[in-house]
Amino acid sequence: MKVPSVVRTFVMRRLEWDLLPPALLYFGLGLVGITSIANTFFVKEYLGLSAAFLSSVAFWVGIPWALKMPLGHLVDSLGRWKHLLVVAGVGLLECSVFIFLGLMRQPAVMIAHLPVESWYLLASLFSALGIVLQDVVADGLSVEIGATREAASDAEDGQGHHTTVQTVGRVATLAGAFLAGAYNVFILSGADSLTQAGRLDLYAGLFDWARLVPLLGLCGSLLAVIMGVGDGAVEEDSSEEHEAGWPVLLLSGLFVAFIIGVGLFVHTWKEEVVFCGSLLLLGCSIWWLARKVDPASRITYLTVIVLVFLIRATPSVGAGMSWWEIDVLKFDEAFFARLLLLGHAISIVSMVLYRRLFAERPLWIVYGGYLTITTLLSLPFLGMYHGLHEWTAQVTHGLVTARVIALVDVAIDSPLAQVAMLPALAVTSKCAPARYRTTFFEVTASFLNIGTSAAALGSKYLNQVYVVTREVVDAQGQVIVPADYSQLGTLLVIAIGLGFIIPIAMLALLKIFRVKGW
């Protein structure tokens, strides 16, 4: 059996050490998820935040990811000094962790200074921006490595090199997430039997460990400096290509100023204004940079990123889904940890084994299959909302329960989570102009991440129309807000329907008009 190229890269004699610094950065970013389950349960059990507010927070948390455009240009400009961004990211991540620890251990002191909503939003923004700062440096290193390998190769198709490097980055991120999931399985086992105070101490302990995670990013940056990987040395470019930096720099400055201005001076429809303005500025930046790409590759690049944008922009059900799983299906912390662990493990194996599938198959097959399968895999949860798990448990004499259905669904669905992004990242990396590799890559990433913000905005609207609430009690045990999941089924139908219809319509148009590259 032929050993996959990613395995050969890391394990066999043709070991390429230049991949280690970005892999270490990506690994640390995956490990940040060590607090994700504790965060979900802490918010549900101890903070009285609505589903609509949490969707709004998800929108604002997506904005730092859109800032990858100016940050990418900054990485190109700073050269080896770009590693200072990693240091800043570590500081922001540490601030986020300390805010959460304050809310857990000294809530009265924290609330005396700011409302819970403000602290939660601030901690979420710090965490997102800290991750983005480290991620943009890792992206810059990976794009430079891919370009170096393509230049040194005799192969005509350079996309395979970029796909391999991007796959290594995704695998490293998933490996960090897998380790975080494994630790959660170990530490959260038996959490449902603890008292409320005991569970709170358990969550705080996870956040204590999270303070060490950002240090991995520092190690990756230090290793890159020592090895001279991605030191900013690029080949000489034509004056025409060099001039591309000024418009991007101007648009980047306008983008940052626009977001700050809206945040300070706009009081109504703030999220909508930020989204529309960001989309316009990012669209202009993409079009300007895409002009530096040859026409054939430009068409493929633009159509791929627009399709992935639509895939990411479809709204989700929101926080109400996890609340329903906890309250109705009785999924506890340990089971959520096992779900995450299984998903990450299968994703890592699939990414390694099927890298060539993403690199060599036609794009319409990759994305058509992805949309069809992910839609079908959404149906079991809709079925369980209407009692599917009760029927299967009865027919199989208790063998196929809600937990079994969830485990099987995650096992099949997890490998697909990276399918939408990996071809887009590979195409972007291959098309990136030499002088502005990181800028081009991060402008694209910013555009795709705005799609995530659009999904959060749509989710907020849906949750305002179809209200889902979980039970909230006060210190005396009196119910303040009763649990109501009656409209969750409608939310599921709308989210599943939009997630399939919108992108598949574009994919059909691309095939009907025989767009080049599809």
Q: Can you give a write-up of this model?
A:
By secondary structure, the chain is mainly alpha-helical. The protein has 24 helices and two strands. The chain has helices at 5-11, 20-31, 36-46, 51-66, 68-78, 83-105, 107-113, 116-152, 159-188, 196-210, 215-227, 239-242, 245-265, 270-290, 295-313, 320-327, 333-353, 355-360, 363-385, 388-395, 402-413, 421-431, 437-465, 488-512, and strands at 472-473, 479-481. It has a two-stranded antiparallel ribbon with strand order 1-2. α5 crosses α8 (116-152), α8 (116-152) packs antiparallel against α23 (437-465) and α15 (295-313) runs parallel beside α23. The longest helix has 37 residues, at 116-152. The radius of gyration is 23 Å and the shape is globular. Mean pLDDT is 80; it is low at 6-15 and 233-244.
